[in-house]
Amino acid sequence: MFGQNDKIIIALSGGSDSVLLLHFLEKLRPEFNFTLLAVHVHHGLRGAEADRDMDFCTGLCGRLGIEIETKFVDIRSHRSETGASMEMAARELRYAVLKDTRRDRGFTSIATGHNMDDNAETVLLNLVKGKGPDALAGIPVRRGVVIRPMLALKKEEIEGWLAKHDLSWVEDSSNRDTEIQRNLIRRKVIPLLKEVNPALNEAILGNSEMMRSLLGSVPDAHGCTSIDPGGRIVVDTTKARELTDYSLYREISIRLIENFQLNLKFQIFNSLKKLIVAQPGRKIDLGAGVSAFRERDAIVIGLLSGAVRHGPVELSPGEVVAFGKYLISCTEAENFVKSGDKKVALIDAEKIEGVLAVRVASAGDWFYPLNGKGKRKISDFFNDIKLESSEKWSHPVIFDSENLVWVCGLRPDERYKVTDKSKKIYKLEIREHGQNND
């Protein structure tokens, strides 16, 4: 994992795992002649606590004589642009900073503090989400330039060693928020599973290593898919029948990510397998506006008619934006006048965080439907109103930097409703091209 004269970037959050990693590499520095650079990414999400973490990291590196760079990223803007969850947006920007710094400074590798507990959480999260075999292989010790020297250590071992040597670290309070899926797995699911097997994390790590070894022994299989001039994936059903399930899954999965930025869940893959032997004319929806159609000798995977493939479009007051077959506008309303037109929504402008943006709905979205019964997944809401399958994942929604504001033409979010205390009101409107917007 390490070599003489390596130049290693340390991802330093200030948490116990990254602090131990820093001390570990600092101890090895004389023997291997390492050049070390700590990088702390400030996500700008936790106010004074995030500033405390940054100050802790700079102070620690100063005492150890290790160079540190602090980087600031705008998670909310990235989330608005990509539609990613807060956790995923933070991860994407954090790794982008680390890799850019490695390239710009000419370093050889990036070391992170991932441990055995992190691997167990990742595997369980991927399992319940129905992801494929590669995801169940967990976190690798090395992936490209990223190395994880502490993957065989448990969190309690890490914190025990630091406490024994009177070394401090900082805690991220957001790790206690069980609204975040990983925290729910960590704080509620894993403790229950440990009642069945106290050595749960060790068992999952062992299975991860075995799964990774097994998948590495499977030869690549290519040739059952191609891309037509319209950008659609064409699956040759005769060749597909000759492949193992895993080879077929891997090939189609890669094509979907490359062409539609769509992850293939196992449940959907099983439906695709049935389509291989089905009669021509059958169709299934894969999500995000993508469908698979069974033709005579092939399955054709492409966007549904009218589906929108582009990313979020910013919507500022006074503007009209084109989004697929729709025109969507935002204007400042003079007063609060209720309308029975579902294509119009009035929202309290002062409750908006950041900027408004239009994008397609995705299965992970949720909101509080106006006059509803609380928090609702958008997929369940679509089912409740019996929206056509072909429309679900091409339907536009409006977000601010934090939440879903309006499922366009269908239902606004309760949290943004106008009241008699509202001082500034936005009128949001959606029409199809060619309709009268007066």
General description of the model:
The chain has 438 residues and is an alpha+beta fold. The chain has 3 domains: 7-215, 3-Layer(aba) Sandwich (Rossmann fold), CATH 3.40.50.620; 225-303, Uridine Diphospho-n-acetylenolpyruvylglucosamine Reductase, domain 3; 313-432, 3-Layer(bba) Sandwich (Phenylalanyl-tRNA Synthetase, Chain B, domain 3). 37% of the residues lie in helices and 22% in strands. It has 14 helices and 22 strands. It has a 6-stranded mixed beta sheet with strand order 3-2-1-4-6-5, with helices on both faces. A hairpin with an 8-residue loop joins strand 17 and strand 18. Helix 5 crosses helix 8 (181-193). The longest helix is centred in the N-terminal third of the chain and has 20 residues, at 86-105. The radius of gyration is 25 Å and the shape is globular. It starts with 6 loop residues before the first strand and ends in a 6-residue tail after the last strand. Mean pLDDT is 87; it is low at 306-310.
What are the key terms here?
five-stranded antiparallel beta sheet; 438 residues; Uridine Diphospho-n-acetylenolpyruvylglucosamine Reductase, domain 3; 3 domains; Phenylalanyl-tRNA Synthetase, Chain B, domain 3; Rossmann fold
Spatial arrangement of strands, main beta sheet: 3-2-1-4-6-5
Structural class: alpha+beta
CATH architecture of the largest domain: 3-Layer(aba) Sandwich
Biggest sheet record: 6 strands, mixed
Total number of domains: 3
Name the CATH superfamily assignment of the largest domain. Answer: HUPs
Helix content, binned percent: 25-40%
At the third CATH level, what is the topology name of the largest domain?
Answer: Rossmann fold
DSSP summary, beta strand count: 22
Helix segment count? Answer: 14
**What are the low-pLDDT stretches, counting only 5+ consecutive residues below 50?**
306-310
What is the 3D shape? globular
Please identify the top-level CATH class of the largest domain. Answer: Alpha Beta
Beta-sheet strand percentage? Answer: 15-25%
Rg, Cα atoms, Å? 25 Å
Mean of pLDDT:
87
- Separation of the first and last Cα atoms: 66 Å
